Amino acid sequence: MEYIETEIKGVFILEPKVFKDSRGYFFEAWKREEFENIVGKVNFIQDNESKSSYGVLRGLHYQKGAFSQAKLVRVIMGCVLDVAVDLRKDSDTFGKYVMVELSGENKRQLFIPRGFAHGFLVKSKEAVFTYKVDNVYAPQAEASVRFDDPDLGIKWPIDPSSVILSPKDMDGTPFKDAEFF
Prior knowledge:
This protein is 6% helix and 40% strand. It is mainly beta.
């Protein structure tokens, strides 16, 4: 596995070594000892999975305070643009974002530490998205920032009127009014 730290400290792209032959392929998706030696100790406690269709944008979600979550995300089938926004007030990259294409084809993963908002846009007909988290879901601590907030300036490659959002995501908080870490 190759670990590539992004321009935002603590956010890593993981590129696995994929072994292909006439039967298909094999790769190690996650190995605790290796991960902890490079990224640091993270106690993942739950795996989640979602399926979405083209144009669905989920996010930008986060949980506040003690319920903040680190995530290791990947796509099993299809293709998404995955975004992590730094919400750590004391960070040099506060308000900056990383955007990475994740797909069943490239098998990349993105590690997002606690203190970030997260979201993704489905670029393929469908996408199956899976992720590990290190903390439980807590509805009382849930928050979201608008995907199209002008202060963030995220360059989503889709007409905003074509984006499919949940009612919760339509009501996301402007970045300037969000609660930070």
